[in-house]
Amino acid sequence: MGKSTREAYGLALAELGEKNDKVVALDADLSGSTKTGTFKKVFPDRFYNFGIAEADMMCAAAGFAFSGYVPFASTFAVFGTGRAFEQIRNSIAYTKANVKMAFTHAGISVGEDGGSHQSLEDIALMRTLPNVTVFCPCDAAETKKAVMAAAEIDGPVYLRLGRSSCDDVTDENTPFVPGKAVVLKEGTDAAIFATGLMVSIALKAAAALDAEGISTAVVDFHTIKPFDEETVLAYNGKVKAIVTAEEAFVVGGLGSAVAETIAGKGGAKFARVGVEDRFGQSGNPDALFELYGLTVENIVAKVKGLL
Predict the structure, then answer these.
(1) What are phi and psi of 144, to 5 degrees?
(2) Which residue among 16, 29, 93, 290 sits deepest, i.e. has the most Cβ atoms within 10 Å of its Cβ?
(3) Measured distance CA(98)–CA(79) in Å, rounded
(4) Three-state secondary-structure class, residue 139
(5) Across 22-27, average pLDDT
(6) Cβ-contact 252, 127 below 8 angstroms
(7) Residue 148 predicted with pLDDT over 90
(8) pTM: predicted TM-score of the whole model, two decimal places
(9) Could you give the C-alpha distances from 291 to 117, 276, 282, in angstroms and in order?
(10) What digits encode the pLDDT tens for the residues 184-194?
């Protein structure tokens, strides 16, 4: 088990700060949890704690951006994308402000904090906004690349980060191009398109399917927007079944992006694995993944059902 994506974010942000003195970190009284405290230790004069005032923080982030800085604003995903949605929409997305929104504790992997804190709608919310790039890295190595890539993009970027430790499925040599999915495993019968913490589970599901004679590809969609339609259509033309896997609502996220891409095109049969029309709840992350069907077994069943 590797580091959590939030830990990797904290380390990457501090490293980025050494390379670029225009990088500043903003937080809403959660720097211990979001790991911006790592940046604060090295650059205390470039760290700003706004307290529990997320809307204020996002507007200030826009101000920093238009003053020539590269602000990374952090809080929990449910507070950032939820409470401050209007400020993100009007002060950041609408104006194309060069703000990086690195929000942690997304998805049901938040665990014991419960449904009030488990943001499952954040991908859908951020994906609907023009001008916003949406990254959902799968592990520590990919998170570092996403942070560095975000700093190079001129415009708003949403980085979706998790609380719990996760498997390392990529390394420093794995390609990372914004808007271009990564094929982690090839297959000819079925394809699993996954994002975030579901990528490692997708790889295990593909191994189980291969063992049953079903050749299964796994594609890591670290970028939800701009979306890699080219890769989706390529697999839609060569496999019989496509299943998406995400730790978010099945509506509005990766599954919706794939559905929108292949609608009316014919080709593969299609199904989605994600959280179905219900909120999260308090519990151990592994138990919650089991309860909500974010499992190897459910992905395998979906693929076999389609075939």
Answers:
(1) -60, -45
(2) 93
(3) 20
(4) coil
(5) 98
(6) yes
(7) yes
(8) 0.98
(9) 18, 11, 11
(10) 999 999 999 99
